[in-house]
């Protein structure tokens, strides 16, 4: 039973070849492409409105130097939302339940924000390691603590996304299995379990979007500190 629960998180293979690269490429194929017409269709209009509103909300508190990241963070937001939403379709694989995938996204982007801060304003970037007004005996301890918290940031980004999606998928599988087993034995209980499953699926749709937003929002906050 334990193995079957976690089989859904195993990377799919075909003839011994991992298909995770195909799973990561699929979202880009599904996005509607811009047309040369004067008026776009409803889907393209909705996509453009979403991108504009998201970009305004994320980059409003960031100065002009950080607006160069608009394309990267907006693309990452769309990519994560699509991967998370596709993972809710039955018999599909969710790459964002893999910690390695999430860390591969979090570490380079976090490191880029830190390097930008060190290059543009090294004094201000290093000043984050020691809060103003710290008593002299606490200076070495606080520097160590702040350094550790700085390096934990990418790990927290990856683990947060992985844990939330993994927990949701496990709950959906457990409740759906319970509804399937209870249906011939206790139909009314199975019906209530199915309703609970439907509500949980709606919750997971919200979690899929919120976690993608939180991932990008935290990266924008790290960027704001260093720009």
UniProtKB/TrEMBL annotation:
Q: Which InterPro entries match?
A: ATP_synth_F0_asu (IPR000568), ATP_synth_F0_asu_AS (IPR023011), ATP_synth_F0_asu_bact/mt (IPR045083), F0_ATP_A_sf (IPR035908)
One of the entry's Gene Ontology molecular-function terms is:
proton-transporting ATP synthase activity, rotational mechanism
Location of the protein in the cell: Mitochondrion inner membrane
Chain coiled-coil ranges: none
Membrane-crossing residue ranges in chain numbering: 12-31, 69-89, 101-118, 138-159, 171-199, 205-223
Keyword list, A-Z: ATP synthesis, CF(0), Hydrogen ion transport, Ion transport, Membrane, Mitochondrion, Mitochondrion inner membrane, Transmembrane, Transmembrane helix, Transport
Which reactions appear under catalytic activity for this entry?
H(+)(in) = H(+)(out)
Query: Could you say which protein family the record assigns here?
Result: Belongs to the ATPase A chain family.
- Protein name as catalogued: ATP synthase subunit a
Gene name, Swiss-Prot/TrEMBL:
ATP6
């Amino acid at each position: 039973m334990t193995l079957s629960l976690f089989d859904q998180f195993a990377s799919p293979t075909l003839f011994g070849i991992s298909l995770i690269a195909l799973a990561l490429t699929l979202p880009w194929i599904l996005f509607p492409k811009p047309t040369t017409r004067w008026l776009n269709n409803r889907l393209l209009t909705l996509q453009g409105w979403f991108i504009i509103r998201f970009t305004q909300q994320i980059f409003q508190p960031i100065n002009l130097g950080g607006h160069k990241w608009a394309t990267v963070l907006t693309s990452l937001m769309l990519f994560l939302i699509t991967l998370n939403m596709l993972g809710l379709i039955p018999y599909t694989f969710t790459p964002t339940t893999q910690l390695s995938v999430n860390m591969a996204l979090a570490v380079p982007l976090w490191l880029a924000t830190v390097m930008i801060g060190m290059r543009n304003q090294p004094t201000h970037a290093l000043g984050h390691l020691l809060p103003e007004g710290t008593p002299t005996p606490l200076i070495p301890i606080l520097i160590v603590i702040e350094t550790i918290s700085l390096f934990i940031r990418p790990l927290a980004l990856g683990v947060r996304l992985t844990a939330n999606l993994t927990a949701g998928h496990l709950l959906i599988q457990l409740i759906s299995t319970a509804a399937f087993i209870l249906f011939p034995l206790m139909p009314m209980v199975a019906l209530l379990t199915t309703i609970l499953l439907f509500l949980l699926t709606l919750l997971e749709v919200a979690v899929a979007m919120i976690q993608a937003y939180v991932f990008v929002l935290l990266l924008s906050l790290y960027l704001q500190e260093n720009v």
